[in-house]
Amino acid sequence: QVQLVESGGGLVQAGGSLRLSCAASTSFWTHMGWFRQAPGKQRELVASIAQGGTANYAYSADGRFTISRDGAKNTVYLQMNDLKPEDTAVYYCNMHFKFGDYWGQGPQVTVSS
Fold this sequence. Notes:
Blueprint: E1 4-7, E2 10-13, E3 18-24, E4 29-37, E5 44-50, E6 55-57, E7 65-70, E8 75-80, E9 89-97, E10 100-103, E11 108-112
């Protein structure tokens, strides 16, 4: 059984920052993505990273987000700076393993104007 535990969601004012984390119970992942879903919208990819460290970002990240990983802690992070009300959504961590994909619980991120 693989478990992903997310933390770091909450309420922040526009222009503020939040750091999301996703900790896995095993280290055998190959690549990971942060997704978000706002009310009335489809789930979208925000950023992804491979085990080797290569990162990719969606246009919506707009240079404000940084994805990183700590192999020793089996943890992936999403640093979000200069947050905007449009960033309000539930953020989901997804990790791909050789044996399948797993999702975190999806904490809420709310950005007030």
